[in-house]
Write a structure and sequence with these properties.
about 120 residues, alpha+beta, OB fold (Dihydrolipoamide Acetyltransferase, E2P), 2 domains, five-stranded antiparallel sheet, about 40% helix, about 40% strand
Amino acid sequence: MHDPAGDVMFTMVPIFIGIIFVIVIGSIIIGGAKGISEWDNNNQSPKLSTKGRVVSKRTEVRGGGETRAYNEYYITFEVQSGDRMEFKLKGEEYGMLAEGDEGEIHFQGSRYLGFTRYV
């Protein structure tokens, strides 16, 4: 005897798995393209320095659960014009800065290059 429900399963499941596969691969490709584009834009940007002060610090925990957790570190600077810029930096650099520090911010596009604190 012919089971119509079985035919649907053998037809729909491979299509569903194929759609999921395309979505996952597409997301990976789009993420990689965005990363390469940002890297290229930063390389094309001039290296700049401006006076500013540290107005906030934050961390973001990624992963955990079934995978290894790691921290990402962010600093927000306020420049003389009142504009604010947030940069991702390494933990060692993050630990050396405190809210209220004033100095020269060095950057290239969205890439943080360093901070020279005024004494």
